[in-house]
Design brief:
CATH superfamily of the largest domain: Aldehyde Dehydrogenase, Chain A, domain 1
Number of helices: 17
CATH architecture of the largest domain: 3-Layer(aba) Sandwich
Helix content: 25-40%
Pfam families: Aldedh
Protein name: Aldehyde dehydrogenase (NADP(+))
Shape: globular
Oligomer: single chain
Strand order of the largest sheet: 11-14-15-9-8-16-17
InterPro entries: Ald_DH/histidinol_DH, Ald_DH_C, Ald_DH_N, Aldehyde_DH_dom, Aldehyde_DH_Superfamily, ALDH_KGSADH
Structural class: alpha/beta
Keywords: Oxidoreductase
Distance between the termini: 69 Å
Number of strands: 19
Strand content: 15-25%
């Protein structure tokens, strides 16, 4: 546990590092991220062994997660060197500007300052100490403090040591990366005026509490929380009849990593009477999997009991939860079925996220009512998915449903399953509340912009401009320049005269 005296020193060190780190040349900061990636790869065998013991996740899953984590760091290094994320804009002084004489104005995105990241439990590498939020903050040039998750304390400590040593070896300023432990420490730092942004991945309840703390400070700060999502999937009659692997894909997505994924499909909508196959028999072939920790196990057990006991529920695969002497839970998939009227009538019991291997199949009568269902019952999701035949997609009859999915989700899938989030420049992993507290993304290169803010410099001398805005452009970043004299031609490209 970090003491209050320690916390003051932690915040002070991060604050002292903010300006030197922000001014670190891009190639040096990028090299530091690559050094962290290399160090994590070198220590992966040790780290994976610790993670397996603390989380119950498999070696194959964790090996893939380390690969994702380290290559994400390398991807962000490329973004830093490119410099386009800084969005440098230069408007030259223009006495003939049509709106009135224009001064020299230059705008760039600058680091917000020290960031506090609350690590997640379900991705002990990819969303923890060195995960996506951490990589984005460091790439942005922000000193980072990670509040370690209690579900994997030893892994957090050891990962933190590896990351800190790599950053120091790369010449980064003292205080640019620190790890603290304990709920009280996290809340105290979130209230500290030296912290300028927060990030969180976890439950809706805890995330909302932290978001409220960030908003109620004397000087409120941005708080980027990934909270909860049920990720509905809609299958048309054509999809059910043409895709013999639909059931297997659904169950694999529900049960992967014991259903402890933020993108797990919590609901599958299929037409009434459509034959999915033997859900119970197929689910029975899937092996039990340990849940991450006793707290998550107890919460899943309670949630499962509530769903199984809800009125109008038909059990297709009852599944089971086994408890060992250490209070760890081991679960097999639970799948139930309801009709749409029951889901609406008992939404209080059924719509809450089930963090574990449980999902609800919903039978509907008319695909035309699905857009209203999405807007009414699922107003905020990380993902929504549509399974339909090529003929149904080409016919245009699903356009309103697709519109509803886009209005209520950060990522809309056509086919496939939402578990497995690719780290790319175009990825959006965020959505309307309660999926996240803002529509920013926590996955992909756009995640960096969460920890930047726009600053404009007017009539500034070259010597006092940030490097990305200087005429000699020492960092070699893209600059969007508006030269004098262009405003007289506004509108000529529209074809309107």
């Amino acid at each position: 546990m970090t003491t209050e005296i320690d916390l003051d020193d932690v915040a002070a060190r991060a604050a002292r590092a903010a300006r030197p780190f922000a001014e670190t040349p891009p190639r040096e900061r990028a090299a530091a991220l690559v050094a962290v990636a290399d160090a994590l790869d070198a220590a992966s065998a040790e780290l994976i062994a610790i993670a397996m013991r603390e989380t119950g996740l498999t070696e194959a899953r964790l090996t893939g997660e380390v690969r994702r984590t380290t290559n994400q760091l390398r991807l962000f290094a490329e973004v830093i060197v490119d410099g386009g994320y800084l969005d440098a804009r230069i408007d030259d002084a223009d006495p003939e500007y049509v709106i009135g004489p224009r001064p020299d104005v230059r705008r760039v995105l600058e680091p917000v300052g020290p960031v506090l990241n609350f690590a997640a439990s379900n991705f002990p590498f990819a969303f923890s100490v060195a995960g996506g939020d951490s990589a984005a903050a460091l790439a942005a040039g922000c000193p980072l403090i990670v509040k370690a998750h209690s579900g994997h304390p030893e892994l957090s400590r050891r990962t933190g040591e590896v990351v800190a040593a790599a950053l120091a070896g790369a010449g980064m300023p003292d205080g640019v990366f620190q790890v603290v432990a304990g709920q009280q420490a996290g809340v105290a730092l979130l209230k500290d005026d030296r912290i300028r942004a927060g990030a969180f991945t976890g439950s809706t309840h805890v995330g909302r509490l932290l978001a409220d703390v960030a908003a109620s400070r004397p000087r409120p700060i941005p708080f980027f929380g990934e909270l909860g999502s049920v990720n509905p999937v809609y299958a048309t009659a054509g999809a059910v009849s043409e895709d013999p692997e639909l059931l297997q894909g659904f169950l694999a997505s529900v049960s992967g990593s014991a259903g402890q994924l933020c993108t797990k499909p919590g609901f599958l909508f299929v037409p009434r009477g459509a034959a999915l196959g033997a859900v119970g028999e197929t689910a029975a072939t899937l092996a039990e999997h340990r849940l991450l920790n006793p707290g998550i196990g107890r919460a899943f057990e309670e949630r499962r009991t509530a769903v199984l006991g809800a009125p109008g529920v038909t059990v297709l695969a009852e599944g089971a939860v086994r408890v060992d002497d250490a209070e760890q839970r081991f679960a097999t998939p639970t799948v139930v079925e309801v009709d749409l009227a029951t889901l609406r009538e008992h939404r209080d019991e059924l719509l809450e996220e089930s963090f574990g291997p449980l999902s609800i199949i919903v039978r509907y009568d008319d695909a035309a009512e699905l857009p209203e269902v999405q807007r009414e019952l699922f107003p905020g999701n990380l993902t929504s998915t549509l399974h339909a035949s090529d003929a149904e997609l080409a016919g245009g009859g699903l356009a309103d449903l697709v519109d509803a999915l886009a209005e209520t989700s950060g990522r809309v899938l056509f086919g496939g399953w939402p578990t497995g989030v690719s780290v790319t420049s175009a990825m959006q992993h965020g959505g309307p509340y309660p999926a996240t507290t803002s529509d920013a993304t926590s996955v992909g290169t756009a995640a960096i912009t969460r920890f930047l803010r726009g600053v404009a410099y007017q009539n500034a001398p070259q010597a006092l401009l940030p490097a990305p805005l200087r005429d000699d452009n020492p960092w070699g970043v893209p600059q969007r320049r508006s030269a004098a004299g262009r405003s007289s031609g506004w509108g000529s490209l529209t074809g309107v005269h």
